[in-house]
Design brief:
8 strands, 229 residues, two-stranded parallel sheet, binds pyridoxal-5'-phosphate
Length: 229
Amino acid sequence: MTHSEELYARALRVAPGGVHSPVRAFRSVGGTPLFMSGGAGARLRDVDGREYLDFCMAFGPLILGHGNEAVRSAVTEALGRGWSLGTAEPYSLELGEFICSRIPWVQNLRFVNSGTEAVMSALRVARAATGRSKILKFEGCYHGHADAMLLRAGSGLADAPLPDSAGLGSNLLTDSPPWSLGPGASLEGGTVRLSPTAAAPTEARYTSKVCIASRKPSPSLPSKRLAGT
Ligand SMILES: Cc1ncc(COP(=O)(O)O)c(C=O)c1O
């Protein structure tokens, strides 16, 4: 048994499916989830010492790679000022101004904690702005666990029946029936069938295809087991 498998057996006792996000589940692709012990630059190392090229980068925030020095010193400096203030503060204002000044089509923004919240809010804004309710949802694309996005949500949920999770409203299939994005698929039929559509979120690259095992070990990666693992 690998160390990842041991940890997974323990995780099954405390979390549904042993994971904390559907995209980390392996049931539909075989095997058990890999537990990573650390990352450096473009690489991850798992608790069994195997290395991977990381094409996920925490789904975006690690755009400069794992353990980037400039990010580390900015985070350390911010920690010295307080951890989470739970109030309005000037730091998110500065970041918001920076983003709005550099991306012309960003008129204003709100920071959220997860992709799920971002997508949920974007769908609500799209529905409010257009006065339409239908969302064009592509099969296999994962956009977090907001209700409307849990239909054919990709490999993380492929082993579940449609809708991909219990507890979803029955109007979902009519409001956002999953539409194929496979080779040869045509959007025209979808647009006609769903017209008028409020929004059509999509993934340029499926979330689940994010790590490639590396043959060459990298000396900069931490190989020590994490405390308690
Ligand atoms: C395209 C896309 N949207 C939304 C999400 C959901 O993000 P989170 O897990 O932070 O809620 C993901 C996460 O995998 C994603 O890949």
